[in-house]
Design brief:
alpha+beta; Alpha-Beta Plaits; four-stranded antiparallel sheet; 4 strands; 51% helix; elongated
Length: 226
């Protein structure tokens, strides 16, 4: 009876290959997770995203081992996964790239392309670290970026009226104005400082302007919705 059960439960992939593939993928996913942590800059960092990324790589590897040379199983699995809806919103575009990176490595190992998986992990990780090291395409390097300035004020303040704080600006662009009550108005401006290191002095001069109750300065670099 035991022999019959073993024959019935026999799979196309040996147990040793399954275990080796899973541990190999796990090691490569740890490298990807380390690169993600090393190069992450914004406030959207999430430990659960790291866990999810690693697990998705492992699952992709498992799926490819199941459906290899089994077209019927592939279509059945595709139909099952079509029932799943992912409602998590990616707060940063680079997170999507890392998810696909993790999935691609899992797929490569699941199809026994070990050299592709290993070299792909090392080369792509090296490229990511290199771009991060040299701050490639950053707002500062391209002369773009700047700050979002939010001012809560009451009359006689108007953002277009010449004042001391204007001398610290390189450029300014009016974005919106919102009336909070009969007295206060919230102004939102996009600005660039003439001297990036003088943000404290700029805010001090702005707060001393007649009518200003509160001023907030948010960097436009590496910011996401959170």
């Amino acid at each position: 009876m035991l022999d019959n059960f073993i024959l019935l439960a026999e799979t196309e992939v040996s147990a040793a290959i399954v275990v080796i593939n899973l541990f190999f993928v796990f090691g490569l996913e740890l490298v990807i997770a380390w690169v993600y942590r090393k190069t992450h800059r914004t406030l959207s960092y999430s430990q659960s995203f790291i866990f999810t990324m690693i697990i998705m790589g492992l699952i992709a590897n498992l799926i490819m081992m199941v459906v290899t040379e089994n077209i019927v199983g592939a279509f059945a699995l595709l139909g099952a996964f079509s029932l799943i809806r992912f409602r998590t919103i990616m707060k940063e575009t680079r997170d999507i790239a890392f998810v696909f990176f993790a999935l691609a490595i899992g797929v490569a190992v699941g199809t026994n392309n070990y050299v592709v998986a290993l070299l792909g992990t090392l080369v792509i990780s090296g490229i990511i670290l290199l771009l991060n090291q040299y701050n490639f395409a950053s707002a500062a390097a391209s002369g773009r970026g700047g700050y979002i300035l939010i001012i809560l004020a009451k009359p006689p303040f108007l953002p277009e009226t010449a004042a001391t704080w204007h001398t610290a600006l390189k450029t300014q662009q009016f974005l919106s104005a919102k009336t909070l009550d009969e007295q206060f108005t919230e102004y939102t401006l996009s600005i660039k400082l003439a001297n990036e290191s003088a943000s404290g002095a700029f805010l001090a001069a702005l707060r001393n302007t007649p009518g200003v109750e509160r001023a907030e300065l948010m960097s436009g670099r590496d910011t996401v919705e959170y």
